[in-house]
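Hello K.,

You asked for the raw outputs rather than the summary table, so here they are, unedited. I folded two proteins back to back in the same session to keep the settings identical. This is the first:
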Amino acid sequence: MEIKKKQNIIIHNPETRSFPADAFYPETGEKLPLVIFVHGYKGYKDWGAWNLMAEKFAEAGFFFVKFNFSHNGTTVEDPSNFTDLEAFGNNNYSKELSDLGRVIDHFIEDPKVDDQKIILMGHSRGGGISIVKTSEDERINGLITLASVDTLERFPENDDLENWKNEGVYYVLNGRTKQQMPHYYQFYQDFEQNYHRLDVERAAEMAKAHFLIIHGTDDESVPVTHAEHLHILNPNSEIFLIEGGSHTFGAKEPWMEKELPKDLNTVTEKCIDFIREKM
C-alpha cells in the first residue's frame, strides 16, 4: 500500500500566526481514523524519530498528523530549528490550545478522514495540552499521552517567580542547541488568567474519550508518578509502562537510523492496537 506524505501544509490561525503541519496516510478509498500528534516543550514535528513513527501509523491504516505550535520557536520557513526565540518567549498554553483547535478544524474536513474517529496523542507537555483539549472538545474520541505531565503549573517558585515578574523574562538553556531560550512573564499571567481551564487534573477526570497513558519507568524529565496520578484521576483509562523507558522512549535528535528505537516501536504498536480495539 502506497503511503502519501504531505509535509509543511500551512495552517492559518488568526488568533496566533500560521504554522506548518504534516499528514501521512495510506492511499485508500476508506475513511481513516485521524491521529493528531502534539509535541512537547522545546519540541517540534520533525524532531528525532517522529517521522518514522508517523510512517508506521500510516502503514497501519491511520491518517496521522503532526504539526509545530505557532510559537514553539520555529518558523514556517525553517520548521526544524529554533530561529525565532522571540516567538518562543511569547508562547503560552492558550496559544497552543488555539493552534490545536485549528489543526482539528483543518483535518477533520479532509474527505479521507473519519470524523467520528479523532484521536489526540500528546508527548510530555503536549500530553497536558491534549488532556485539556479532550475535556473541552466533544469531537475527540481517543486520547493517548506519552510521558505526559499531570499539571501545566510548571513555573519558577517563590523568589525565582518574583524575579521573573520584576525582570519580565527568564531563560532556560537548551542542552542540545546551547541556546538561551526566553520565557516572558506573560506565559505565567496567561496561566493565572486561565487557571480553571488549564487544570489538567480536572480535565483528566472529565475526559470522556478512550484514554491510554504511556510512560517510561526511567523518565528523566517527567517522573512516572505523573502517569500513575493521571490513571488514578481517570480510572477508566489504561496505563502502559515501558520498563526502563526514557522520556523520548529511546529517540534522540538527530535520529539517523532507518528503524524506530525499540521502546518507541513498542509504544507505537501499543497505540495502534489500542485505537483499533477502542474505535
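The second followed immediately with the same parameters:
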Amino acid sequence: MIRGAVRLAAVLAAGGLAAGALIAASTAPLPEVAARPPSTVVQPAESRQLRVCPGPLLSLADDAASAATARSVGAPALSIVAEPESASIEQAPLDAPDNADAATDGGPVAISAEPGAVLAGMLAGAQSQSAATESLRGFAAAACVEPASDSWLLAGATEVGRSGLVLLANPGEVASTVDVRVIGETGAVEAPSGLGIVVPPRSQRVVSLAGLAPSVRTPVIHVTSAGAPIAAALQHSIVLGLEPAGVELSTPVAPPATRQVVPGLVITDVRGVAPDDDHAEGDDFPAVRLFAPDDADASATVEVRDEVGAVVSQVDVTLAPGQTTDLPLGTLEAGSYTVVVDADAPVVAAARSTVLGEGDDPILADLAWAVATGALLERAAVAIPDGPDAALRLANPGDDGATATVTIGGSERSVAIPPGGAASVDVRGGDRVILDGVEGMHAAVTFGGGDVLASMPVSPPGPLDSPVRVFPQ
C-alpha cells in the first residue's frame, strides 16, 4: 500500500509538472522570427500641376437645321489663384470641335504651372457664366478640376424638359479612350454608344446624356478612361413648357466611400416633402442623390446639419444594388446646411436645391447641385469667379471644434467652426482666398440672390505627388 501510494503521488506530481509546463508555454512570450522585406520610401519628383476648366455653357437644337449641334451661349468668366501669388501660370485653350461657336466663345481652358513654381496643391481655378436664351436661363459656376481616369458625376435627369451634356476634356498629349456608363433608378442603362469614345489630345468631346439614357429620373454617370486622364463635367438644364428654368454645371463628386460629406447646401425657400413620400418627384424640393457601386444592399443614414451642428433632419435608407436613389430631405428652413452620409458600404452622393422665381404663382428659376467633397489638407487655395452673393462655406464634420485661418486678398481672419457644424465667409468675384488649418474640413463656394443659385466644390489635390513605398522584387 505504501509503494502504491508513492507511485500515485509520483504520477500526480509528474502530471502537475506537465500541466504547469503547458500553461507556462502558452502564456510566456515566445521568441519571434520574422523576415522584413526590404523597402524604401520614394518621394516622386514634383509634377506639373494641372487644372481644367469645362468651358462655356452649351445649347442643343437652337438651329432646326442642325438639331444635334451644340453651340455655346457666350464665354465664361475665369478666375485663377496660385501660391505664391507671383507664380507664372500658363493658360492653354483646348480644341472644342463639338461646339459650333468655339471660335467665338472659346472652349475649355487648361491652367498649369511648372514643377516647383507653385506650392503643392496650391493652384486653383474656377469659372462662372449667366445664360438668358430661349433654351437656357440661369447661373452656373464650376471649379477647374484635375484630370482623372475614374470620375463620378451625380446631377440632372433626362425626363421631358430635362437635358444633359457630358463634357469630356483631354488636356494630355495622347488620345484617351473613354467609357461613359449611366446608372438610373432601375439599374444600369445599356448604352453601347457611350463606350470607346475617343477624345483626341488637347481637345473636348460633348456627349448628349439623353442620347445615352433617355427618360432617366436619377442618373449617375461613371466616366473611366484609358490613355490620358479626363476632366469630366455635366451640364444640366431644365425647360418647363416653353420657358427655360435653370442650368447647372456639375463637376465630379468624391470617390466612393462609407462616409460622404456634402458642404454648402443652400435652401432659399421654406418648402419640401416628407422623405417617405412615394410621389416625391421633380425639382421643387431638396433631395440627396445616392448610389452604392457594390452589388449588394447598402444601408445609409443621411443627416442634415445646420451651421451650429444641430441635426435638423435624419433619414435611414436602404440602397438597392445597382440602382440610384433621390432621397427627399424633408422641409428645411432657408439657410445653409451640411449633408453627412454614413453607410455600411461605399457610396457616392450629391444634393440638389432649387430657387423659385417671383410672382403670385412662382415656378422654378434656377437650381444647384452641391457635391460630396474630399477632406481638405492643411492648406488650400480657392478661386472665386464672378457671381452674386458669393460665400465660402467651411464644414467641420468632426466631433471637436476647429479654427481656420482665411486670407482674402492679404487680409487674414480666424474663423471658428463648431463640431459637426459649418461657417460662412462672404467673398467676391476675383478674390484670392488662401485657407490654413483646414485639415479634415470640407468646403464649397455658393452663389445666390434673387432667382439665381449655384454651388461649386473646393476639392483637395490628387495624390500624384504623395510618397510611395517601393518593395523590390
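The longest strand covers residues 335-356.

Happy to rerun anything if the numbers look odd on your end.

Regards,
P.
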